[in-house]
Write a structure and sequence with these properties.
The chain is 38% helix and 23% strand. It has eleven helices and 13 strands. The strands form three sheets. Strands 2-1-3-12-4-13 form a six-stranded mixed β-sheet, with helices on both faces.
Length: 284
């Protein structure tokens, strides 16, 4: 009896061991990220996109305090060099003067691509044009071409609809599509892309610009630039001209946990969804 009892007990222990070995290990609890995160730089990123990214991020990281300042890419680099921010938002690549400053301070970067700022020219759906050159786009928005026939269209006046001067997009489009020349005098300004699209949809002679997510709205159509259509594929392949990659820069030696965690969130599927919802083109 004693022998049988020992055998039975041994079998029971073996069985328990088998069951336990088949159970998944307890999930490691991810350490809570907390502290302060300071982001400075590009208004293209900071005007509308960054506040929405931050708001969503803080739902998961309520203990992280985030400060945002958007005074241009150059200001972001200057703040990063001075140690006044954790993340510099940039809507252009770092230039040679900035690289020299960084090297003089012994700063090396982590550089994170987060997506592309891209803008499409939109016309009223009744307009017969489907394609423009970069020079024609520049001439339309600077007022050199004031009649549609000047760019191969119908004999009708051009009506321009653009963003308001305080927006980053006002400057962004001027840099991307207008060789940084001044806008024409006879423009109508709006505080968002959606309002531009609505105005162009109601005006047969209207033209403006908008983010890709609005290109399927009724009454408008997008225009190809030298045969290249505005879409995520042409942007990611580097073919579409009115687009620029946006990045985050950090000081490699001093990259904080909140900075690293925020960048990871922005590059995550949810972060990329927010980019698309705000008219940017996600990474592929």
């Amino acid at each position: 009896m004693k022998k049988n009892f020992s055998f039975s007990r041994s079998c029971g222990l073996i069985l328990i061991g088998v069951v336990l070995s088949g159970c998944p290990a307890a999930k490691q609890t991810e350490p809570a990220v907390e502290g302060k995160l300071v982001i400075k730089g590009s208004n293209t990123i900071g005007e509308e996109l960054a506040p929405k990214l931050i708001a969503e991020y803080k739902k998961e990281r309520p203990k992280v305090t985030v400060e945002l300042e958007s005074k241009g890419t150059a200001s972001g680099f200057a703040a990063l060099f001075a140690g006044d921010c954790d993340v510099a938002g940039a809507s252009r690549v770092i230039n040679n003067d900035e690289l020299t400053q960084a090297h003089s301070k012994g700063i090396d970067f982590n550089i994170y691509t987060i997506g592309s700022y891209s803008v499409a020219v939109v016309m009223n759906a009744a307009n017969t044009l489907t394609n423009l050159t970069r020079d024609q786009v520049r001439d339309l928005f600077t007022g050199v071409a004031q009649n549609w026939k000047d760019v191969g269209g119908p004999d009708a006046p051009v009506h321009l609809y653009i963003r308001d001067p305080i927006s980053g997009t006002y400057l962004g489009f001027r840099e991307l599509a207008m060789e940084n020349k001044n806008y024409a005098a006879n423009v109508k300004t709006f505080t968002n892309y959606a309002a531009i699209v609505r105005a162009v949809a109601q005006d047969t002679n209207g033209v403006g610009y908008a983010s890709f997510d609005l290109l399927t709205k009724p009454g408008v159509k997008s225009v190809s630039i030298r045969g290249v259509a505005p879409n995520a594929l042409t942007v990611n392949e580097g073919q579409y001209p009115f687009s620029r990659i946006v990045r985050f820069y950090t000081n490699k030696a001093k990259e904080s946990a909140p900075a690293r965690d925020f960048v990871r969130f922005v590059q995550s599927p949810r972060g990329q969804e927010i980019l698309e919802e705000n008219g940017f083109v996600r990474l592929y």
